[in-house]
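Practice record 12: protein with cobalt (II) ion.
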Amino acid sequence: MNETQVKPAATPLRILDTTLRDGHQSLLATRMKTEDMIPLAERIDEVGYWACEVWGGATFDTMHRFLDEDPWARPRILKQYIKKTPFSMLLRGQNLVGYRNYADDVVRAFVDHACEVGIEIFRVFDALNDFRNFETCVEGIKKNGMHFQGTICYSLTERRMGGPVYNLDYYVEKAGQLEAMGANSICLKDMAGLIAPYDAFEVISALKKKVSIPINLHTHYTSGMASMSYLKAAEAGVDVVDCSLSPFAMRTGQPAVEAIAAAVMGTPRDTGFDLNLLVSLSQKLEEVAKNYSQLLDDHKMAVIDTGVLLHQVPGGMISNLVNQLKEQNALDRLDEVYAQIPKTRRELGNLPLVTPTSQIVGVQAVLNVLFGEYKIVTHETRAIVQGLYGRTPAPIDPEVAEKVLKSGGAKADRTRIDCRPGDVLSPEMDKVKTDTAGVAQSEEEQLICALFPQSGRQYVEKQRKEST
Ligand code: CO
């Protein structure tokens, strides 16, 4: 090749690599072991990624629970090989890497240790897009001088962006709020793969006008539209998109980096990546991917989930609904449940459907179909109505709120709060320290126990037995 032809693009599309986190979380139930990442790690560093997502999401849970690995060790080990590329993690706001709101002292300690093990970019999200749930995390991230990537969960109530809640103004306003909070970049997180190419163009164009910090689009291939949406987002000026190496790409994962890099080659958005290097990395990954192929969902030929195009219900949520109905011997009522989901969701304040709200809405919708609307109410539905997860994107239906609050019986707490949910939680670390005295030998181990009182403690106890 003529060397003079190779000059950097004017505005290269930057790529965040998700192979080592969302890639295997989406396709292989987050089961990739650290030892299998090492053969790839050194050369991943040569690609020129904007960042590598290596931690957070479900990794902390699966590592200690199923892989018998110390969750804190992974970023430390990978840092020995990936020295230049910054590490990013997905942090569920006040839920950290667990499934409930933790007290502020747990959040502070967690963020400090995450910085210490090498995380530099914190992608922080909240299932309700209530940014008050970011406050304590952000304090810690800023104190440590790290990058706060403020996240907006992308959601729809109609076929396409628009309607009374999730319209263009909603996203633009949220982006303004994040910039005002001190975000270093913004992630638009489309966890269900709903974003349509022309909506991506419209929303990214509007966000670029509104804020001056970089915009990162995250989506999933689930509906089959992801690569088209990236291309339109690139045309609209998106700064960063998330991709995986091809063996861990597409299906319910991210678009493949090789295809995205090739698609923009020779244009002003050329990534500058060496396609030969990417392909050799994928070949290397294919070798270890064999160890995990039994985890891949191949029960049907189609690699896309057409259900998402029809009713916007994320794939993972559908399989849970089917299981719940099977247990009740009521699988024939699945269509009624599909009709009930948008209704229940609207009544509970039009929540985005992402962990944990997808579960909360799904389970309640099934109960509403089987036993009558809000005759049986889950603990979590009550907590949503009480404001314990935060403020919902739209108001909760007042009649539904009353039914839900009454459902716990005369003695049940009916208080509704409108403050930051973390404000009503008492500190937890001292109690964890007392409870784990003689078992946990470091604050990192105490945090494993604080986040996962059962499985975490079991893991830590096992370490003690093995070291004696
Ligand atoms: Co994702």
